[in-house]
Amino acid sequence: MYPSNSSSTNIDDDNQSNEELNSMLAQCDEIDNQLIKMIESLSSNLDKFNKFDQMVEQLNQAETKLLNFSQKLDKLFSHHNLSLDLIDIEQNQIDNDDD
User: Which carries the bigger pLDDT value, residue 14 or residue 45?
Assistant: First the structure.
């Protein structure tokens, strides 16, 4: 029978509900901001990993080129040594013919 008191209680309940909702919304906003920061950090780390993978691939390509170059050098030295051996043999034959 106290309508003003009941009305006041309803307003107080509504105010408390609004405050709780505002508090929950603020917490949701904070969580959202933290998630955004985490996603940005993960994205940045992913970019770093992608760059790292690219660097590894470039190093692998460089290693392959270096191995190919090394094999060519080995063949060149082998050919050079064979040529020196042939020159020595020819020189020995010339020396033997002179005797």
Answer: 45
Q: How many Å apart are CA 10 and CA 2, to the nearest integer?
A: 12
Distance CA 67, CA 37 (A): 45
Model confidence over 27-75: pLDDT tens digits?
A: 999 999 999 999 999 999 999 999 999 999 999 999 999 999 999 999 9
Q: What is the pTM of this model?
A: 0.51
> What is the C-alpha to C-alpha distance for residues 94 and 82, in angstroms, rounded to an integer?
18
Q: Which amino acid is at 90?
A: E
CA distance 31 to 1: 45
For the chain, the first-to-last Cα distance in angstroms comes to: 145
In 28-76, the DSSP E strands lie at none
